[in-house]
Amino acid sequence: MSRAGEIGVRLRSAMIAGLVAVVAVALLPGVSVAQTRSLAPTQQQFAPVAGGGGAIGPGQTLVPPSPTQQVPGPPLAAPSAAIPVGQVGLMLSARYGRDFPQPINGNLVWRVYPTRPDQSGTFRALKEDKSPTPTITLPAGDYVVEVTFGLASAAKAVHLRSEVTREVFEIPAGGLRLEGRVGDVKIPVGQISFDIFPGSQFDQSDKRPIAAGVTTGEVVVVPEGTYHIVSSYGEFNSIVRSDIRVRAGKLTDVTVTHRAAAITLKLVGDQGGEALANTTWSVLTPGGDEIVRSIGGAFPKVVLAEGEYRAVARNDGKIYQRTFKVNAGVDGEIEVLAH
Fold first, then answer.
1. Dist CA 198 CA 16 (whole Å)
2. DSSP states of 162-181 as a string?
3. pTM of this prediction?
4. DSSP-derived 3-state class of residue 33
5. CB 147 within 8 A of CB 130
6. What superfamily in CATH does domain 260-337 come from?
7. Is residue 240 helix, strand or coil?
8. Backbone angle region of 150, left / alpha / beta, with phi > 0 → left and psi within -120 to 50 → alpha
9. Domain locations in the chain?
10. Is the dihedral of CA 115, 116, 118, 121 positive or negative?
11. What's the pLDDT tens digit per position in 87-140?
12. How far is CA 204 from CA 199, 230, 273, 301, 312, in A?
């Protein structure tokens, strides 16, 4: 491994790595890649969502220009101010890869590090810049430059002499945008979330998510590669797992279909009557596995995967039960009679 690579690994030891490429790999039933589109021209930039950990705003796209298309992009501009005496100019830009000549035009973070750690053994950034194509001034010498874009990054060793130095970094990253549906109905924002893991779900190694709690419409920028997506609709057992590939310079839209329904539970004295207050509920499978444990309220609503269940209501020291069936996409009420 090169010196820059070694330092880059150490610098990113606290960061999450891994990524994906374009077509669906081993897609499970209920998962579809709705569209893979190229990443957007100059005015459409990634806009990170606050706290999104590499996510960009809904409706944004990543679009690389085609090889024959002339798209004006941010140039490797000359320094905007005179370079101070004793300093050297380092002009930086990044692109998705050799096939994408246009620079990435936003949401990059550049950091310049020394090639050796300080006395505490820590690499501390000497300079940081968030411009897409910055010119950084430094004394002549050797450095390691790292650039991050969402959850993707690249590092390179740079030697500065007396003349202005230009460096182009390649970040083979793509975007992943997710949504969930039940049948033809889109699951509302806030009722579904996604965790993204590196590699395939069939890998046996323990993995942590590179992005957790991703919501509908967020675009997560990740390195090119294969990812395992866990989609959770509601809080209980409606979970879908799938493998997706993401390709550099592409935005991949993924739709996950859940076979589930929202069920409201009611304990009533008579059929169609008022729900009894001070009731707690559990929901079990036919085999006795507890899916929902001790939730309260007169009208608790739960999202359950398609299948058969038993509702157990506890009220005033007594227990009442009823079996019921959940059909995908058929929301409804389940009444349990208190006698």
1. 9
2. SS-EEEEEE--EEEEEEEEE
3. 0.76
4. strand
5. no
6. Immunoglobulins (2.60.40.10)
7. strand
8. left
9. 260-337
10. positive
11. 999 999 999 998 898 899 999 999 999 999 888 989 999 999 999 999 999 999
12. 10, 16, 51, 35, 37
Residue 190 has pLDDT above 60, yes or no: yes
pLDDT per residue as tens digits for the range 280-308: 999 999 999 999 998 988 889 999 999 99
In this structure, what DSSP letter does residue 274 have?
Answer: P
Cα–Cα distance for residue pair 113/10, rounded to 1 Å:
12
Q: Which two tokens stand for residue 140?
A: 């002549």
Nearest to 105, CA basis, from 78, 72, 145? 72
- Contacts for 146 with CB less than 8 Å, ≥ 6 apart: 8, 11, 12, 110, 111, 113, 153, 154, 155
Provide the phi-psi class of 99: left if phi over 0, else alpha when psi is between -120 and 50, else beta: alpha
* CA–CA separation, 57 and 50 (whole Å): 9
Rounded-to-integer distance, Cα 136 and Cα 104, Å: 18
Report the distance separating Cα 311 and Cα 162, nearest Å: 77
